[in-house]
Amino acid sequence: MSDIVAVGPTSGLQYVRIQPHMCKALEALELEAFPTALPEDLYDEEGFLEVAEDFPEGSVIGFDGDGRDEPVAIGLGIRTNFDFDHPQHNMKTFLADAPTASGDDPAGQWYYGTDIVVRPTYRRRGIGKELYDMRKQIVIDLNLAGIVAGGVIPGYAKHKDSLSADDYLAKVSAGELYDPTLTFQIENGFEAVCALSNYLRDPETNDYASLIVWRNPDYQSPDGGNS
Ligand SMILES: CC(C)(COP(=O)(O)OP(=O)(O)OC[C@H]1O[C@@H](n2cnc3c(N)ncnc32)[C@H](O)[C@@H]1OP(=O)(O)O)[C@@H](O)C(=O)NCCC(=O)NCCS
């Protein structure tokens, strides 16, 4: 049994750190959560095992009920020194350039969110918000600068013929359009910085994603500043 690190205040889910024995079931949950993405772009069992090895303290996995054998929620991340002057990247090259198999750089000052998933039948009950709140707490506890991530923008599929990806992000950020993922992230304190091209292959959205950022207000940088 893994130690429970939190009980969801809204959902009652039990959250634990990622462990090797759950990684096969996490692979199945990942495929269920991203039905239009290409499986080779998603975490598989091996990828989850690498995170469990390198940076389990950056993860939260949600289970429903006392049996705790069926994961229903995933929040994962790695540490990195993100280059905001050159933000274009995709997951594959980004992880391949890092010093460990999982992509985690123990000297990294940012938490890079690699995965956030709620089983479809458990959505819209506040579990996603719990995952983001726990991530923020991890970042505060480890004194990291903030959270950076590439977010999918499923709602862009309906607008890709009339709007550039950056114009779409601007309209979602202004509240003029709703995106099932980005709107939720903005409500959780994130800012959409720019569109990422060729981020994750998904023909529905022409492979676009958004670079999103949340800054830790309590961060103390190694040189004594807070930005
Ligand atoms: C994005 C995702 C993680 C959100 O998870 P979730 O558990 O549904 O998130 P929440 O329940 O906290 O919030 C989702 C919405 O439900 C609403 N909601 C929360 N509790 C609710 C309730 N009891 N009744 C009605 N609505 C509720 C929230 O206000 C939010 O609304 P919004 O879409 O207008 O922002 C989930 O949809 C998912 O796994 N998507 C596929 C994978 C994915 O896109 N991951 C992100 C990759 S970048």
Report on the architecture of this protein:
- With 227 residues, this protein is of the alpha+beta class.
- It has one domain: Aminopeptidase (3-Layer(aba) Sandwich), CATH 3.40.630.30.
- Helix content is 25%, strand content 22%.
- It contains six helices and eight strands; from the N terminus they run ββααββαβαβααββ.
- It has helices at 23-33, 45-54, 91-96, 127-141, 165-173, 182-187, and strands at residues 4-7, 14-16, 60-63, 71-80, 110-118, 146-152, 191-196, 209-215.
- The protein has an eight-stranded mixed beta sheet with strand order 1-2-3-4-5-6-8-7.
- α1 crosses α2 (45-54).
- It is globular.
- The protein starts with a strand and ends in a 12-residue tail after the last strand.
- The mean pLDDT is 93.
- Bound molecules: coenzyme A.
- Residues 33-34, 116-118, 123-129, 151-152, 181, 183-184, 187 line the site of coenzyme A.
- Coenzyme A binds next to β5, α4, β6 and α6.
Summarize this structure as a short list of keywords or feature phrases.
6 helices, eight-stranded mixed β-sheet, 8 strands, Aminopeptidase, 227 residues, binds coenzyme A, globular
Reported by name, the CATH topology is Aminopeptidase
Most strands sheet: 8 strands, mixed
Small-molecule binders here are: coenzyme A
Tally of individual helices: 6
The arrangement of helices and strands along the chain is: EEHHEEHEHEHHEE
Strand share of the residues? 15-25%
Poorly predicted regions: none
* CATH hierarchy: architecture: 3-Layer(aba) Sandwich
Give the oligomeric state of the chains in this entry, treating copies of one chain as homo and distinct chains as hetero: single chain
Q: Tell me the CATH superfamily.
A: Gcn5-related N-acetyltransferase (GNAT)
Mean pLDDT metric: 93
Please give the CATH class: Alpha Beta
Helix content: 25-40%
Taking Cα atoms only, what radius of gyration do you get, to the nearest Å?
A: 17 Å
